[in-house]
Amino acid sequence: MKRIFIPLTLVAVALLSTNCSNDFIEVAPTENIAEADLLTIYNNNDGAKSFVTAIYSNALSFSASSFSWNGLTSMTSDDADKGSDPGDSGTDKDKCDALTLDATSLSVQEVFETNYQGISKANIALNYLPRLDKADAAVVARLTGEAKFLRALMYFNLVRCYGGVPIVDHVPVPSSAEDTDMTLIRKSKEEVYKFIETDLLAAIAALPEKSGYAISDLGRATKGAAHALLAKVYLYQGNWQGVKDQCAAVTGYNLVTDYATIWREVGEDSVESIFEIRGYGGNPSQGIEGYMVSQGARGTSGWGWGFNTPTASLANSYEAGDVRRDATIVFAGETMWDGRVVSPLVANPRYNEKAYVSNTKETFNGDWETTKNIRVLRFAEVLLMQAEAANESGTGDVTGPLNRVRNRAGLANTTAVGQVALRAAIRAERRHELAFEHDRWFDIVRTGQAKSVMAADGKTFVEGKHELFPIPQKFITQANGKATQNPGY
Amino acid sequence: MRNFIFSFLALILLPAYMSGQVIKGKVLDKSGIGIPGAMIIADDSKTSADTDFDGNFIINAKVGEILKISMVGFDALSIPATANVMSVTLNESKDTELKEVVIIGYGSRKKSDNTGSISQLSATDITKTKVLNATQAIQGKAAGVQVIGTDVPGSAPSLIIRGIGTYGADRTPLFVVDGIPTKNINNLNSNDIASFDILKDASSLAIYGNQAANGVVIITTKKGKGDKTTVEYDGFYGVRTPLKTVKMAGSNRFAYYSDVAEQNTRFSTDQRYNTNWFDEITRLGMYSSNNLSISGASDKINYLFSLNYYDEKGVLDGLDFNRFTFRNNNDYKLSDKLKITQTLSGSISKSTPKPLSAFTSAYKQSPLVPVRYDNGRWGMPIIGADGQASTTGSLFNNVGNPVAQLNYFTEEQKNLLLQGSIGLEYKIFEELKFTSRVGVEYNTFKRFSYTPTRELWLAADPSRDVANYSASEPINELVTGRSDYFNWNFDNFLTYNKKFADIHDVEVTLGMSAQEFGSREELEVRGRNVPENSNYWSLNQSSAPSNNLVTRHVIGNQRNLIGYFARFQYTLMEKYLFTGTIRRDGSSQFGSDNKWGNFPSFGLGWVLSKENFLAESETINFLKLRGGWGRLGNQNVPINQQTFSSGAGLGYDFGGSLYSGTTIGAFIDPTLGWEITDETSVGLDFKAIENKLSGSFDWYDKNTSNVILNVTPPLTVGTGATPAHAGEISNTGYEVSLRWDDNINDDLKYWIGANYSNNKNEVSKVYNPLAIRQNGGSINNGQFTKRLEVGEPLGSFYLFEVAGYDANGNFTYFDKDGGITSNPVETDRKFFGSSLPTYYYGMNLGFEYKNIDFSVDAYGVGGNKVYNGKKAQRFGNENIEASIATDFWTPTNTTAGNPAPFNSVPLSSDYYLESGAFLRVNNITLGYTLPKITNSVSAVRIYASAINPFISQKFTGYSPELNNDGDPMGLQGIELDAYPTLSSFIIGANVKF
Questions:
Q1: What is the pTM of this model?
Q2: What is the ipTM of this complex?
Q3: Known SUPFAM superfamilies for this protein (chain B) (predicted)?
């Protein structure tokens, strides 16, 4: 019997050996890289870059730059209607158009959420970058500048839409009450602008000019972009001297000759371009989701859903001979620059040409994620900001930069004289130069014209309410009393 | 591990232990058939033996020595040994209860001695309803076991044992097939199943530790028996049709309704076409199964080979499924002490899936659209100036052509699953047995899909000309993928069983189990412009090779589990029963501080019918009270390791090249571990009136105290939801089963049975405020329908309550204060009950008269709600049901059942919520066994069955039984993209040679 008990004892010992079993249930992950492997895998230039690449990538989502963003920044304004079939609301785009958005509207929530998702990616990058001591210090410094530029851009979008919002400036620790408050309590609009300025000044210090980048880095945030964005941030606060100083620092840029090419593939990364959200139409494509298709002509001969359509008011507002009218609007029945014939039977009379991608004359790899880049900042806007700052402050050259923009559009020098007339001229110029570039709504709110402009469009703009969109109800609920709703909602 | 394997091998090689004279004999029952497995004990010689498959035994003992011969189900006998070959006849025990054995974890137990709650189903229960997956066949047959069926070819139904106690972790029970743990038994040929034991209460389940929280189903497959080779054929053929259909508006009704909604006369009310889209996308379903098995046994070996081919053509056009399975189960008796068991099974299935959203498209698409225009182009929702369907004009809704959708959707999936095990049973000495078993599972999956992009472009607009198709767009796209995994498990346990002083029956089980769920490696590639002929669908044939791309290559995380278990079972005087178990489990899913957990349980039983006061009872033949408590775990939760998200999906273009990005998508909670469920239960089993009436009653209270919920950080945190322990879910219920069996005479016997189960599910606590108010049941129109809330069951519908109509015939709703509003806000929503039933029941009856057998099974549920999600899909000129088109609000009919025609996304409201209660006849079978024709054919039975022939339901949709994704907070209980329940009529034959 002993012969049986010896192996049995061995079995029992083996069964209870904790070393053996503890090793057995230590399994290395294979699906995703463990955070514990940060310093063995990401501690190099490419690793450092990848954390910042993810921030850029955030802007490509359908909600960040496409459907909901168009809903808030464009369809709300007098330049655009919801478009599409009357029966197709696009979830809540009818409410965007009618200025009846409420705190539960999807567009309101998505723009809020997606910008904070990008801010989170920026905070995550800023958290890891200092730990990557094997990456070139210069590269890490530049990447830090890029992350701060992008974070500033997203806070600028938030503050323009929602006013003062919580400033999340680092990755919050869930168990920290202080960090929880940071994510829930709204800061004032001024504090948010201050935070944006701080990020941009840091970015200016860290970033090279466009010419300082290798070709393979084309598209990264530049010193010029940070100056231009800071100028715009000052513009929204009426800091005219700041606008002038920052615009003056935007150097090495010029206007392209043909306005119509700006939004085409040939116009990408042009001498006029300061910052773009870049769609990659290759294989696999990684473009701005649905940007083209959601705004493409709908129905017979069409190529899209037909949302965000130019209004008659916009189409009729151009001066005779303004090349920007045809470059901005696709008219039903027209033959486009690439030879495409648009049937007169399309569902809507006009479509946004700046969202158009040619499937014959441009790189085309499917219509959901296209090669289309959104021009976020370009030199023509710098000129218009210079003109506005000069006109509002009473010092500096107003008509010089204004006429550069007009002349390029095929128009003669402005005939406006005096601050008031020039103010109207500059506003009209912004409308036509930057139509469908996600600024019209903010411009009419910023300049106090919203009530009259929207009334002319047949919409009721309630002063004291419609300057801001509502804070998403989902967030108000999460904040459980710590966050207040905007007035009127 | 190495030490362990070495000693394990040493054990196998132990020499046999022999002494004394050889006594031979055979143990028979009254009809002269050998009894296998009977035990022979020679006390003086201290030897023992088992009879083999034919009842033969060989034992070392002295002539004249008393041999004790015993067998479960028979009265024990003591008889002196003789030098001649002995022939011993045992009498069947009158106590029939003794014959019944249930399978428990790592062993089996006489049913009368068992303290837990186990439902056992036999092969006949499982094979009677002709379905692919055996789980479906047990619907309504076991109390406490809810099966939510589905008739999608090749799909698996949901199995819920005593309610759902989890939200974010795995919900499916563990299946243990011949010792191999698995999560899906779609590969298993129902004809191969010998028994299906469902472990329901924690005292039986705790031996499976942290895999047991959703219940365990132990499936034992058949083995060869008898000394003759048996060849058996079973085959059937059946046709299938939807059990219920929904009458849609015709084209003229549609036109009128939509004109009212649009307040113009866009649509002519005298339409040219009137398409019934449901009819256009469906066909008569057909299915068949052919099964062949060969089995038998000899002194040393028993064997079973089986082959099965199951073939189904779904009611949805083009949706086909077939499965070929084989099995080989052998047992080798190497010596009196050593037995090797081996199982091997393979399943090769092939399917051509089609999108179930075609059902919703068919529901929504307007009947005025033709399937094809006269010129052969696909019909689209385009209305011409004359108000008729046209190839040019305006697009009036966003629904595609359902027939074109199916026609251009080409996908094929092939799956191979191999399962096998090798085990040994070694009798170290009479009372102590060692069992060791290695099980393996290998799966390989292949799929491709072919999308004719150019044809789809043409189909989307009948005015398009192929010449205008962009040269830069693909003509077609081929996606093909592969995945595979390998799992193994290794179980070792010792079982000691001894009866002391005739009254103390002790059984101790000690063991360990190691499991590895290997990485699933997935590879997917995409190519463009392959030839149209399907035989050339490979990327090598692409005419645009620069577009070939690897779209996915993922190596899934491996998961390892290890557990140690001990069980003590004690029976005193066959009256007082005790079971205690403990399992210690470790899992690789959790952080280093949370890897191990302990799962104890105990059970008590008292066989009252053995007590003096009942022993003489004529009425009560058997009565046992039992109860217990146990703790169970669910380790199948999201992996708890902080990882990065990375790849091209987070990538961006710099300088014309794509670079991949890295970030953290969601932060994990370092304290995440397994979910813990505690259950207390009591029950009783009885037999009465000459054993004709049998039944059981069970009550249980089950609480999962650390349910994993998705803790959604505030929007401003910007990262995804984090699974964390955040709440409690309780399930309380009772179960009753009754059955009456009687033989009126030798020719006629009949039975009638019923079971009823009641379960109250409740999210009893949520202790993280960011985890409550999670919405679910999103219905593809931007609206949600369900919410997780404290005090409500899982799957609760959270909707606006319709108050009536406003002056324009649009719905008004009650606000939270009871006022009436046209624009309710989210806080005005209310809870309206859950998609989970509060009770379900089954009934079965049947008789056998001479050569005829007949049975009926019925099943019903109640207390649940279903959401008519497809009906809420009209927001831009989609079709409506006939009942709406004929009864809607008008200024002169303000009390109509439906609101004025509208074209906007309807709010989720109780208007779309209906009762989910139903009672359905699941099966009616009539069989006839032919008189013996020749000696070579031992039995022929022919049968006909009607499966789901009748249903009584209040729901106005296709089917109130809506499993969908199987998620109570998802689409379960919502009719959207749902496959209808089918009614099937089959004929079949069973022949034994």
A1: 0.84
A2: 0.94
A3: Carboxypeptidase regulatory domain-like (SSF49464), Porins (SSF56935)
